[in-house]
Every structure is written in C-alpha cells, then in structure tokens.
## 1
Amino acid sequence: MPPFVAFAGVLGGLAVVRWAYKTAVRINQELEEMRLSRVAEAAHMGDIQTLKRDPVTGAYRPG
C-alpha cells in the first residue's frame, strides 16, 4: 500500500474517531441536562419520597 494512501486512511480514521467522541460528549451533556432538570423539578414539587426502615423486616420502604 502506498504511503500516501495509508496516511490518508489514518487521517480519515482520526476524523471519524474525533467526530464520534464529540458526538458522544454532546449527547451525554444533553442527557445530563435533562436528568438534572427532572431532579430539580421533582424536588421543587416535593415528589421525592424518603425511605423509612420497617422495624419488623428491616427493609427500607417509601413512606
């Protein structure tokens, strides 16, 4: 394989890896923003229940 073709293949591969990395970071950032907004909304509305220990079984249950 000529060196020019191999070099072009390496550059193309690096471009694909860079694009995939940037896309993954962007998607994770969007998901984190959505998760934080849902948590903040639930906390604002008082929907988050705390767990209390059941004295009989020792298990934690909502309540």
## 2
Amino acid sequence: MTRRIKLVVPEEVVVKILARLSLTSITRFISVCKEWKSIINSDYFRDQYESLNTSSSVSWSIMSTRNQTFALEIVGHHGCQRWGLKSSLGSYMHYKSDTPLRKTCVLSCTDGIVLLYTETIEGAPMYHVGNPLLQQWVQIPLPPHLTVFDVVRLQENMFFSDTGLVTKMEKGIVVGYKVVWMLVSWVVSTKLTFMIYSSETGVWKTENVRCNRSMIWSRLKYSVPLNGILHWLSSIGSDIDANYIVSYDFYNGVDDVCRTIPFPDFQEYQQARCFKRTITTSAGFVVYCNIFSDNGGRTIMVWRLISTDDHPKAWQLSWKLNPICKFDADYFPVVMHPLNYEIIYLWSRNKNALMSLNLRTYMYSLRKKLSPEEKVKKSMDGCIMRFSGCKEYMDLIYPIFANAIYGGVHDLYFSQYVLPRWLNPLPHRAS
C-alpha cells in the first residue's frame, strides 16, 4: 500500500512565490484553497506585493461613450507587468446577457469599476455596474417610481443625465459605489435633482440640491468622477462654451449646495483659446488643458484643480509649453495620461497620429494605427498601445472642439478606464 505524503509549504514561501506573479495569475490562486485565499486577501500580502512592484505600470484605455458608430475602445494601453493582460481592456467590456441586446455603451469608469448601459431588442434599458476584468456584474434596478417608459422619456430629455458613477475607497479598494442620475427643470436654473442608487443600501433616494448662482445646463450628458465627486461642464452668462465646472461630493458632502468653479482662463485667455473646454483626470486631479494663440505661435497650458472654491485660484498652472509649433503639425489636446501628470496625448490632424508629449522633457513620439501585417511595438513602459477607429473618431470631434465652430454644445466624448493597482472585487450589493 502506497502512503501519500502531504507536502506542507510554509506560508512565507507561498507569499514570496505569489508576490512575484501578475495580478491576473493571483486571482486564479484565490480559488485554490481557503488558506491561499486568506493569504492573498491579507494586508500583509498586499504590502509585500506592493514592495516588489512599486514601478510597474497598469493598463488603461480611452472608451467611447454612447457612440455606436465607432469602436468601444479608442485607445488601448495593455500588456503591463502588474496585470499581465494579453488583450486590451476593451475586450472585457461586455455583459453576458441571457436576453439578446441591440446596444452596449460604457457610461462611466472610475477606480476599476464600470457603469454599463444596454438595451434589449425591444428597447428596454438596463444598467449594470461591474468589474469587467473579473466579469463581476450587478444589474441596477430602475427607480421604483419610474416605469421603463418613464426612463426612456427621461433619456430623451436634454436636461437629464444617467452617467454618474462614484465610489467609496478604503485602503485603495472599492468598498461601495453610487449610481447617480441628474435632472434639472430648465436650461437655466439654480436647482438640481439627484436620483442616487447606493450599493450599501440597495435602494434609490432623491436629493434636491442647489447652486449659489444660476447655471446654464446644456452639457449634462457626461460627468467626470474623482474621489466620490462628480464634475459637470456648465456656463454662466452668454458664453456658449463651458466656463464653469459644477461639482458635488456624494460621500462627504455636508450641505445641499453644489460647488461652482470658474475655468482658469475664463477672463485672462478668453480670446486666445483655440479649442472648446473639456476636463479629464490625471494622477488624482481634475485637469484642464488647452492650446492658446501666442504671438503667431501656439502655447499649450495645463492646469489642475486644487480647490472647489468659486475663484480662479482654485486652479494651479502646472505646465506652460511655448511654442509647440516646432513640432510641425496641427494638434489638438485629447487627454492627459491618467497616471503620469507629465504626459499629454494630442491628435495630429495632418499626420493622422496620436502624439505622446512629455511636458517636462519636451520629448514626443507619434503613434499611428497599425495594419494587420505590422508588428506591434511596445511603449517605453513595456506596454502595448493600440488604436481602433481613432482617426475617424478624432475627425468627428475636431470641429466640436474647435473654437472657430461655435455653434452647438460641447460634450465629453470619452471615459478613462484605468485598472487599479490591486485586486478590486465588486462590492457586495445590499439585499
């Protein structure tokens, strides 16, 4: 009779082995046994992993929102060591439904969590919050006082937005989230109504808030989340372009008043601005960047939001690069690098390429969409950058960004999806 020998691996050895793997591999070991799951979920193991992977990059993507004409993922940055993904993040942006779907849209992304909108063949709307990488999805029920028909009617209202998603973080892990719908009564108003679904309670609630000044609400369709706060573009006076940001803190708000912050170039650079205003996030800040005419040349300026006070000093001018015309190309700003505040991405209309520009060193590189026969080259951080319909997408939004074409409103056209630096399972929804 053969005796079976049970091999006991010391916990210290298990920690050292697992800490050298990618997060994708580590997620598979969670299901091996309870002991390994307990080790991986411990603060000690996380600290060990971080100490060995302090400099490794993470994957991120620029996602198209609502637009069904172009690919879901405009720019994909993947293959980084920390997660070890072989495919771009856009390939994970799907929900396996038992019901046939005619539409899938990314509404918002924050802290590795995604708000996904889908429609059935019959046109019934559905909202899901999930972690695409782990394929964990939860359907968000519609507000109990609204029928499916009511929701469809709201979506047709230009003063309604269903794109809000904010998270509650503890030690770098999402422990809760809120889905936020926003409604105003008219194009000019001081009052806003929020319909808020919380994962911690599992129910919807309605909140009425106000602004200290009348705002023009023509840009509600998209919001920018950061640290539990939503930011919208708005304006005052007769300026067609956005000249204010409206923000509200859904986890630490102490009153029923929204914050209103003027853009830093509202007065000083008003006539020199080349493109309509938009905002993005980078390295933990809301960021505004634009290009300005300057004595026949063009200057790129980047501010980051450091306060929610109603004053231009709420912004800090971080970069001023003059001139950029030496690059011999027609560029317009697209997005800041979500993790590296020194890097901005601009689209070159005459070269049909995305330019990565380091604002500190002035070094730049041009990247074009590759044909199937061309070999993919890795970036300086060892990751792969891919494009899908990028030229067509940029050609579409350029006239809307351009200051010369002042008709029509300006919306945010993309959402940044950045993988977290640690395992981020979807918080359990309250039953």
## 3
Amino acid sequence: MSAEVASSTAVASARSGRLVLVVGPSGAGKDTILRHLEATLPLHADIAIARRYITRPADPDGERHVPVTHAAYAALQSSGAFVLGWESHGLLYGIGQEILSCLDAGMTVVVNGSRAHVKDARARFAGSLSVVLVTASPDVLARRLAARNRETRDEIAARLARTAEIADDVMPDLVIRNDGDLAEAVATLRDHLLRAVMPCA
C-alpha cells in the first residue's frame, strides 16, 4: 500500500476555519506536545484537536485515538468517512469528515498528521491550512526512539534516514524545536493557535 491513502470524497479548498497540520519525525514529541496542549488551552478558545482513527489498540499512556481494525478502516474509507488518510510503518491513519463541520463553523482544528501527506492536505485545504513542523536533533530523535523500545536498531536507522529524505518537502509555517523545555514547545504551539483564532481588530 502506498504512503498515502486517498480520501474518497473531494474537499472544497476554502473554509472559514483553519486546519493546523502538526507533523514531524518519529521521536520529535508531537503526541506529547498535543497532549499537554489540550490540557492548557483556554476553555473559550475555538480550537479542536482531531481524534485520529488508527489501526492499533488503545493505549492509556499514549495518544487518545479511535482504535479500529483493518477491516473497519477499509469500510470507513470506502464510505467516504475520512477527509485525510495515510499509511505509516504498517499502521493506517484516518481523519474523519467530522472536522469539516468544525472548520465551517470557523474553528481551528489541529491534526496530528504525516509529513508525506502535506502535499495532499495543501491541495484539499488551500487557503485554510497551516503546517507546523515539530523536530529535534538527530541525537535526540535516536535517543527517544531507543527509549520507547518499539523498534530495532535497523528500524530506528531507517526512521532517521526517512526524516532527512522528506524534510525539504514540508515547507512549514512554523518550526518547533522540541529538544529542550517541553513547556516552551507547548507554549509556542498554543500561541500560534490562539493567533489563528483571534478576531480581526
């Protein structure tokens, strides 16, 4: 299967809200930043963090996603339930059409996305998309990947090589270096989101 799983439903490019696609290499800490972000967002902020559909079991210590089987994912995809979808490292990821109602209501929707899928997202949400790249030094990425004990040494090397291969294709609106203070990284993303929803003077 290719790195991208095409949505079966065309999406109008212009919407009143803002889609913020947060991308970055494995080990950059996107999940951690988004988890802490959700706990610190003002209650009045018109910001929603999309729940991803993923073909992996729920993890109480990890991302709060919607776990689905491969068969269920295929059925959802066939029915047009996903506005964005992709494959990465043997897992399937989907973003539900429900985010469109939030965007049409003028909200900012945050999506934990894929660097390989940025081009598709730009085509579908031109004029409404902001890309945030979360990254860290190669040494920090390697150390974090080793610490989570999911991949072999060769698999870690492959992930790091992939990071270098697609870095130039992202063209982010904001880059967050997450190899220092986590609170600072969270605050940087939060400020970026709040500026996106701030009404014009």
